[in-house]
Amino acid sequence: MKETFGQYIRSLREQRGLTQRALSQAVGFRSLAHLSDIESGKRNPAKDTFAKFAKALGVTVNDLECRDTRGPIEAAKVLFGRKPEMVGAFLTIIEAAHKMDAEELVSRVKMVRLETGGSDAAPKGRIESTPAARPVKPPEKEKREQPEAPKPLPQPTLF
Q1: Cα–Cα distance, 27 to 35 (Å, whole number)
Q2: pLDDT tens-digit readout, 8-53
Q3: CA distance 6 to 10
Q4: Is 1.10.260.40 the CATH classification of the domain at 5-65?
Q5: Contact at 8 Å (CB) between 44 and 68?
Q6: pTM for the structure as a whole
Q7: Are 130 and 118 in contact, with CB atoms under 8 Å apart?
Q8: Could you give the C-alpha distances from 84 to 87, 129, 140, in angstroms and in order?
Q9: Residue 64 in contact with residue 52, Cβ under 8 Å?
Q10: How far is CA 9 from CA 13, 18, 30, in A?
């Protein structure tokens, strides 16, 4: 499983032999607790600190941004707020994604987009409003034959 942003920061810091105090000072944090919260996943760093982290840890800003999940999570929250019915659809996708790698999931989404006439290239930073799956046709109701109405009984003749 891929490291979280905080785990990645901790891993880089330890590989470079930096203490939390040294990295906190390099980034400009006033307390060790701030960095500790980031490394443990309790907090996210401000976007403007990415360049400071990158410089102190010897990586690119892009390398850090690739591990920042806030954009997709916020986009999903907005979508779910507008279309609550999408929550179930996303949970189904997440369940399926556990059984495959990222490349296979992206490949399947691209294939469905092409089949449904959707665009293959999603704009960065937002979730498309086009359907990600084929429209589901409701099952047809079973046609049952109506029983014939009972035939009237012959009227007895009295004479």
Answers
A1: 9
A2: 999 999 999 999 999 999 999 999 999 999 999 888 888 889 999 9
A3: 6
A4: yes
A5: yes
A6: 0.49
A7: yes
A8: 6, 13, 26
A9: no
A10: 6, 11, 18
- Contact predicate 67/5, CB 8 Å: yes
One-letter amino acid for residue 48 of the chain: D
Question: What is the residue extent of each domain of the chain?
Answer: 5-65, 71-116
Nearest CA-CA partner of 112 in 97, 86, 95, 130: 130
Instruction: Give me 49's structure tokens.
Output: 């600190």
CA atoms within 13 A on the CB side of 95: 6
Residue 74 has which token pair? 């916020």
Please report, as a single letter, which amino acid is at residue 77. K
Question: For residues 4 and 41, what is the distance between their CA atoms, to the nearest angstrom?
Answer: 8
Rounded to whole angstroms, the maximal C-alpha distance in the chain is 118
